[in-house]
């Protein structure tokens, strides 16, 4: 017997009122498309003149087009989805990397994205390798989003001063790099990282992960990159990122519980997990229930 999808708790306003990417614009041809968000069935209709209509039953939902994606919300979202100022730089390439279904909480997927310690063991020879396994101390903090007043100025989780030895930090990297990272969690299901770019000594590459929670223990992950790379073929860039994410999916789908525990006694953190600890504490302060235990 198939279990009905679980909608969010009515009190879970931070989840209901958020924007969610529900598909890449290039992958939504004219016509009707079906998907799910927070246990609710959605009908996406791309109309002939390029606009979108998203409905949940008889309810018309808000929509926005940003960062190569169609966004919607089941509640009352801020005026626009997450701001990424670098996305407007004319020499950056927008690389939409394909949607990946994951049988795990979307919160688990975000937390995995924030984890430096797994690089040498899960992404061996790419993002890490032995004996370079130590995670150096880094700094975590809460910041008020000032990049876009239209988003409402919500509090975000940031981690700075992150660095890690990586054999191939990017598709365009020709040798190993001491890669510097900055992590940003903009909403419970939207996270970004800014990392050393092999092609620019000053500006970082930006990689975003937009997570669409379809059920408490299932989601679709939409990775998007904003790269300073004029020469790598688009297909190679997508394949590089998909290879990394599919390695993560194996780990994510074998984690138990599938939901993310927010009780600090549930899992024992190490020094390398300070960003995860900050993320879970931030979720708990917002009374996040959907996808969490």
UniProtKB/TrEMBL annotation:
InterPro entries named among the record's database cross-references: Cholesterol_7-desaturase, VanA_C_cat
Keyword Lipid metabolism among UniProt keywords: no
Pfam families cross-referenced by the UniProt entry: VanA_C
EC number: 1.14.13.-
Domain annotation Vanillate O-demethylase oxygenase-like C-terminal catalytic: ranges: 103-285
Keywords: Dioxygenase, Oxidoreductase
SUPFAM superfamilies, sorted: Bet v1-like
GO molecular function, one term: dioxygenase activity
Record-linked PANTHER family: 3-KETOSTEROID-9-ALPHA-MONOOXYGENASE, OXYGENASE COMPONENT, IRON-SULFUR DOMAIN CONTAINING PROTEIN
Protein name as catalogued: Aromatic ring-hydroxylating dioxygenase subunit alpha
Organism of derivation: Nguyenibacter vanlangensis
